[in-house]
Amino acid sequence: MFNLRTHPFAVDAFFDHSLVLTYALPVATLQPVIPDCLALDSWNEKWGFVAAAFVSTRHLRPAGFPAWMGRNFILAGYRIFVRYTDVRGRRLRGLYIIRSVTNKRIMSFAGNLFTHYHYKTADLKMSGPAGRILVSSKKERIHIEADCSSEAILPAGSVFDTWQQARRFAGPLPFTFSVDEKNNQAVIIEGVRESWTPQPINIVQEQVGWLQQKGFAEKKLASAFLVSHIPYHWKKGRTEPLSLTKKSPA
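and the corresponding structure tokens:
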């Protein structure tokens, strides 16, 4: 039986801004959250990472359609950095999405129809006044203020010593993974981008209510990066049976 929730067609979009806050949590906290076929992409075998990504998106549409037919929306996505070993034995780095939020109901509907990304609709706002990026939602208890105008320093208490170390966990990664439990298969989506050079950014204020609600109270803000004005492309998803996979080492 044909399953729509496998990202069944390629997609194009344009990102005005993509702000990614990466939080470190103990491996023991994150390990139970991911499916058995995935392994945490860890740092020093101690820390796993959740990225909260906030994206101002334009012209999202099936690949090959003209840009004017696309949708504009704001997206918040919560992703865990993971590794996966596919049926050919390749070790892939990627993201496992645990929640998605958008300000457009049609995007939430389509997202839940075609993916396993757990979309919700909320009063999400994102703006970029001179030298600042602001993200807010009363419903989701999100309030973020990022400063683009000054030299960035790593957040206090970061598990990283340098921005070069932090860049490894800035995203996006080449692959996104989800699990179709009903059909016992893994879904693998590959993203393609050009000129993706994340810039370190200072976070002046940050409140991400859902991470607290999820039980991630011990999270540490490890880094924040911003990219602006870039095209993005997702390939059609591919699937493979979970029975042939095994958990990857971290």
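(Above: one complete record from the training split.) Helices lie at 27-30, 105-114, 163-167, 209-213.
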